[in-house]
Specification:
heterodimer; A: alpha/beta; Rossmann fold; eight-stranded mixed sheet; 15% strand; globular; B: alpha/beta; Pyruvate-ferredoxin Oxidoreductase, domain 3; seven-stranded mixed sheet; 19 helices; 20% strand
Amino acid sequence: MTMDATPMSEALTPRDYKSDIKPVWCPGCGDYSVLGSITTALAELQLPPEDVAVVSGIGCSSRIPAYANTYGFHGVHGRSLALGTGLKVARPELTVLVASGDGDGFSIGGNHFLHACRRNIDLTYIVMDNRVYGMTKGQPSPTTEPDWAESALAPGGTGLRPFHPLVIALASGASFVARAFSGDLMGTAALIAEAIRHEGFSFVEILSPCVTFRPDEREWRKQVHPSPVEPTDDPARAARRIMTDDGFNTGILFSGERSAYAPARPEGPVVEPAYFEAEFEV
Amino acid sequence: MTTSATERTSVALAINGSGGAGAITAGSMLLKAAARAGLYGLLTRAVGPQIRGGEAVAILRLATAPVECAADRCDLQIAIDWMNADRFAAELNLGPESLVIGDAAAEEVPEAIAESGARIEALPIAELAKSVKGGRPNMVALGIAAAAIGLPREALEAEIVETLSSKGEAAIEASKAALAAGVEAASGIDFAAKLTPPDKKEKRWIISGNEAAGLGAIRGGVRFVAAYPITPATEILEWMSPALVKAGGSLVQAEDELASINMIIGASYGGVPALTATSGPGLALMLESVGLAIASEVPVVIVDVMRGGPSTGIPTKSEQSDLNMALNGCHGDAPHIVVAPTSVADCLFTTQWAVHLAEAMQVPTIVLSDQFLGQAKAVIDRPADIAFIANRKVETKPQEGYRRYAITADGVSPMTVPGIAGGQYTADGLEHNPRGTPSSAAGDHASQLDKRSDKLTNFDYGQHWAEIDGDGPLAVITWGSSTAPAREAIEIARREGIDVKLVALRLLAPSRPEAFAQALNGVERALVVEQTHSGQFLRHLRAEYDLPGKIAHLCRPGPLNFRAQDVLAAIKEAK
């Protein structure tokens, strides 16, 4: 190191992205690790906390913005992607992370998921999927197995085929699709960092166990494994892989290149409101 | 027309025809030519239920002074053909004084028109058009209409040149010839009405309320719009989309209204003044998130161009029946602002003011326009420039321990926006403490409820909360598009020696009980005028204000707007 080298003391650490608010989550909840992964990814990218916004809806996972020392918005149930889209279009220089869960994102917010993928807007959508509604104490969600029978709301199970978010994201035009496991904090952090770097809509589905209402999900730790193949940029191949894998394949599953949503820009200099009067004059 | 034409201050005309006949085009050209010649006017249109094509009528009122509502009676209807023309009879209001000119070769006059008692004359409209190579019947009709009111041919020819400039010289010449044939043919008809234009010193504007709302929004500082197409609000979006790009902003067509409202909340949270436009069904979908904007104190403007309801209702016709929803549709104790323009031109002022109010108080503001105001095109004097712009209290240098929802004297807390270091906070729909941390404590709930309510009641709305005019023992209390017919009726009443005061509310929420009491000082009786079925406005007034002992109520649902004569009759009954 030469004498005039810049000292390293300015570097931000994951701790710099955490707020001092204590989470409401149950002990052992996978979402603690996801918070750690997000702050680790932001530190890796060295993004100034004030230039990052974490936007969410309603549910256990959606409590995450308040626990980060970034700007945040904890909105209404299911509309986090719309909040994030408005913010990103109005302020394109910001890094926008949208945090959601399987109920918030795929049930009440399902339509926005389709259209955010389709717009390919440059933000990162992190869904903590625990296959259950935790905040309302254990009802089946769109990703719950059909025979999960622990809820009084659906005795004997829903009998419904689970929603497949990764395939739907692909079919709807998302340009980055990854699966992660919350138990692997550093691996998930690396995927989130990669998703943020990606230009366009990046979707990271994180298997994040609900130890309270789905204690069976503790087994996920043994089931997950890194994807045995490199990511593809061919959506058809990615879709086939995702539809035929065991559901515990983690890593970047698709990374394509499609122009991110870009609002029209003025051809000339920006005009003043008086400019518009001429068209009405007679 | 005969030369015995008498001077008038206002003439009502209609040009109708089947799909493709060009009735609306002729009506639009007539309005513009009249404006060129120095007249004021108002153009509304009605169409059949077909998506494209189908019968249509252009309804015009041309006058020597600004006009803001439909005429009491149609003076002259020109039917290019009779295709479903009876559909429009109620809207036109023909009577024995009316003249209807139909095509000589057309079938029998429709029953509803014949029954009106109107004088019916036949002119060979189609034949005259055919006599000119490339001539069209709507240009003949335009010529007849122009001759009827004594409009100079130069104004019409200039309009033809401008409208048809892209169609080539032959089309322009054909239209001029067809126009001349119409003027000539009309000379044999006795129709006594001539308008002498007033002096025109400055350029006037032809603008619809929807366009005016869009321009008002941009003048106020709106640079982001997200919206879902809906009748009759779509023109706001279609006008704003290219305009916003030129002004350095952007518009996103959202996947639904749930997304629209949340997108504008997101943009505004980012510091960019934001707006959405919709109609009743869309506002109904948005209301949950209006509550979010109230709780998280994010300024947004929502323009509701009202139509007949409930449900899909009457999408192409006007009604004032979203009032209850706009005032009271949110869950929880949810103070917000509701304003309403009182005329086509006022759509500009009121929308611009709405942006200012929303931003100053960090609160969602609903603008209640309606189909009549939104889609009518009016010739107006250039609206005055007003100083109201978005002027949000932004904390640019937050101190350690910045509290986004700090309790302040006026209830408005300076907000930071992303990008400002040290100002990070989480906006939340959950009740929160001054810092923004979720809280279910009784004290936090009470103090934040107080804050959100106080900031609206403490604000100085100036004289804009209502339009107040005249004096008298009787006051007409109204709002929105019912204001124009009330105003016109009051003018007639005054000429007849009846003193009437007008109180038209522009600010519907929050209520201004003191200002209202002052406005009604000396008033003994009131006539409340509103276009609803259930009397939503009167019930609102009764809940919020002290009213005089005697109340008359002119209350009628859409689709027909009030005419001055309706209000005048009610004034006479109430006086």
